[in-house]
Amino acid sequence: MEKIDYLQSWGLPKDTRFRRRLTYLRYLALQALVVRRGHKLCSLGKEQIGCSWTFSPDEIGPESTVYSGGVGNDISFEHGLVNQFGCTVNLLDPSPTGIATMDLAENRIPHFKFLPIGLAGSCCTLRLSPPLSPQEGSWFSHSEKGTFEAPCLDLASLLKQNHHSYVDILKLDIEGAEYGVVDHIIDARIPVRQILVEFHDGLLPGIRRSQSLRAGFRLITNGYRLIAILGTTYTFIRAEWPACPGRVAA
């Protein structure tokens, strides 16, 4: 989903300008009061089109386990992980947009492992609605008005299927399904080192701000620190990371 520049409000209706300014104030408050400093940070992806993601590069390398939920029409972030860190990236997207993107010649590389399925909080079938912006291309979860049925797996099932026991980086750009995935990670106690998530309140119909606040609160009260905010994307990292094969405990 395209990110919003909260400062560029000229020419918009008065109520829209007011909402954007409130959102920007909330962003500043979170940056000042909640974001934990002291972590080395790296940003990859095309920032000019809202596809940049921030993470901690410590201990990230060719052996890292990376999952990317949501392909859309740009995977510059995932290419950056391959080019700079040698990561193998497991990409997931059942939508026509995502499948078309992964079918491009430049995206058919050995470091990309693509599955045309969705990532959700449970193994299920989600109904997806067409993109609000055809140019941006993101299909989104909409149980009542969805026109496209997408098969989905939860993270535990994916890890078992791929013989992984933990995740170093999990990117969630899954258009409203992120809340179920966060709950699943916490409830199933899945070891995920970093969660890079875009919350879609204010971006998609039917998603309340309280859902994003609840998800962030659950992560923070279950061992995660919020270390970066970039527009509508948030980066969480586990405060303590148990020793895993090939890893050094943080």
Average per-residue pLDDT, rounded, comes to 83
The overall number of domains is 1
How do the SSEs run, as a string of H and E?
Answer: HEEEHEHEEEEEHEHEHEE
**What gap, in angstroms, lies between the N and C termini?**
32 Å
Shape type: globular
Q: Could you please say which CATH topology applies here? A: Rossmann fold
CA-atom Rg in angstroms: 17 Å
Identify the CATH homologous superfamily.
Vaccinia Virus protein VP39
Largest sheet: 7 strands, mixed
Q: Report the strand count.
A: 13
Helix- and strand-based class?
alpha/beta
Give start-end ranges of low-pLDDT stretches.
1-12, 245-250
Q: Architecture, according to CATH?
A: 3-Layer(aba) Sandwich
Q: Which percent range describes the beta-strand content?
A: 15-25%
Strand order of the largest sheet: 5-4-3-10-11-13-12
Secondary structure tally, helices: 6
Q: Can you give the helix content as a percent range?
A: 25-40%
Question: What is the CATH class?
Answer: Alpha Beta
Structure in words:
With 250 residues, this protein is α/β, with parallel strands linked by helices. It has a single domain (38-238), classed as Vaccinia Virus protein VP39 (Rossmann fold). It is 27% helix and 25% strand. The strands form 3 sheets. Strands 5-4-3-10-11-13-12 form a 7-stranded mixed β-sheet, sandwiched between helices. It has a 4-stranded mixed β-sheet with strand order 6-9-7-8. Strand 3 (65-69), helix 2 (76-85) and strand 4 form a beta-alpha-beta unit. Helix 5 packs parallel to helix 6 (209-220). The longest helix has 20 residues, at 14-33. The radius of gyration is 17 Å and the shape is globular. The model is unreliable at 1-12 and 245-250 (pLDDT under 50).
